[in-house]
Amino acid sequence: MGVLALQATQPFQRRAAWALAAVVVLTLLVRIPGVRRPFLGPFATKSIVHAMIARNWARHQAPWHLPTLDVLVGEQKGLHLLEYPIFTLLVAWGRVAVGGSWELWGRGSTVLWAALAGGFLYLGVRQRWGAEAAWGAGLAWAAAPVGIIYGQSFMVEVPAVACLLGGWWLWPQALRPGSSRIVRATVVLLTAAAWLGRPPLLAFLPVFVAEAFWTAPTRRQIALAVAALALSLVPLLLWLAWVWHITRAGHPLADRVYYSLFRAAQDHAAPWHWWTQARWHLQVGKELAWRLLGPWGIALAAWGMWKAARGQKRWGWTWLVCSVVLVALLPRKFGEQNYYYVLLLPAGCVLAGWGWAAVVSGLLQRRTLAWSWFGALWLAGGLAVAAPPAWSIPPEDRPVLHVAQLVQQHTRPGQKVVALQGGGISLLFYCDRPGWAWKAQSPRLTQRLHAARQRSARAIAWIDHGEPRPWVPEDYACLAQSFSRFETAWAVWIRWPFGPSAQAQGAQKIPFELSSPGLRSRRRNR
């Protein structure tokens, strides 16, 4: 507890330890129920990407310096060079050493990172603004719908935020003389945050710079702070240089790149036209007001902004300013992919902590009653918002495991397949085969399927929505024509024969009808 720099008595420290434990345990409890759920549901592609990378590493089917997917680019597995996922590497090592399901390892490790982030947030807020604000911020983190939904998903945003909050907690101590160990720990945490979170997380470096200038009394300490921040960026800069080297034209690996940082930069270039769209403002407003902190959390955050004194909480305002800048720089991300709001949670939780402290000290004199009733309502509101996407599988994804099992039964490991499931790669991951993942509505589907068969593809795994109707296997364009007209979930698996062309009598069609009791299979040979 010495690193907290809290001038307090032993009973007060014991009470803070109990509060810290409560925040960590509460964060775990509201995220654990869905930890064994398959990687299916909202934005499951992010989880599937890291599960594919971890599985290829665990099986030694990819070098450790190249995050590799099962999605084929040409004849080889594609490279995913968006970030170097240290967190995914740890999951691969753990899975190799202990065993178990990928869902348990991926989701479970993220839950642990979320609990660690809640603890760091509590400690950082407590040493700056007191125990009441710290408890409010910790409760906001535990009950935030975005945190519950994506705090159990296999993605790097939660570990990145955890490392950022860990560095933020240690930062005041790192600015003091004679704190070399804390400086090293801070540099390690900020390095991991920058490496995992990619350039978007660099938007929060002004938080550290502002606090250094406001609290460090000497130029030497300011220089030490700047040097520590610069040192934490070195691995990220090296990774950027490596990705640029690989993706440039003429490099042997350039044709294998499935997605990269520079592709992402092109996709999100020139963002100003998004600011003029009313739909974007409505979407962002909805996410901020409803899913970021929940109905009670956003009310407390607004109250905290109203009651906060600028002179006492100036570096807390830096969190808010950096968050606004990040949304302005990446409007498409925040307009289309709400898991990005995990990066805004620290600012929202700090504001909610201020609001909680103001409510408890000013409006509610009976603090025990305030903590129990109001805290319970807050948590219930967050769970109500987060429950549907956090613990349920959408109907269109329920046949995935059954179709994947069929593909595994009729193909051998290493044989190529085509997955048609709305353009996502979840079905391809559970097939556990290399291949391609396309949209069945694609106008070029016929050409793509013929090209895949020429590259030795052995099966099509297709999930559609609708009643069965006469279908000719060699007429692949029928997939694109009929996919959008269906209403009930159906899965079709087709095995391609060994001959040069697909004949109707040589293919097998196995539909799976989705009904309320479960999935019923019917096999038809044509």
How would you describe this protein?
- This protein has 526 residues and is an alpha/beta fold.
- 59% of the residues lie in helices and 10% in strands.
- The chain contains 23 helices and eleven strands.
- A six-stranded mixed sheet has the order 5-4-6-7-9-10, with helices on both faces. Strands 1-2-3 form a three-stranded mixed sheet. It has a two-stranded antiparallel ribbon with strand order 8-11.
- Helix 2 crosses helix 3 and helix 5 crosses helix 18.
- The chain is globular.
- The N and C termini lie far apart (72 Å).
- The N terminus and C terminus are likely disordered.
What is the 3D shape? Answer: globular
- Beta strands, count: 11
Question: How many angstroms separate the termini?
Answer: 72 Å
Rg computed from alpha carbons, rounded to a whole number of angstroms = 25 Å
- Mean pLDDT across every amino acid position: 78
Spatial strand sequence of the major β-sheet: 5-4-6-7-9-10
The number of helical elements comes to 23
Percent range for β-strand residues: 5-15%
Low-pLDDT ranges: 1-10, 466-477, 480-491, 494-526
Q: Describe the sheet with the most strands.
A: 6 strands, mixed
Describe this structure in a few short sentences.
With 526 residues, the chain is α/β, with parallel strands linked by helices.
Characteristic key phrases:
disordered N terminus, single chain, alpha/beta, disordered C terminus, 3-stranded mixed beta sheet, 6-stranded mixed beta sheet, 23 helices, 526 residues
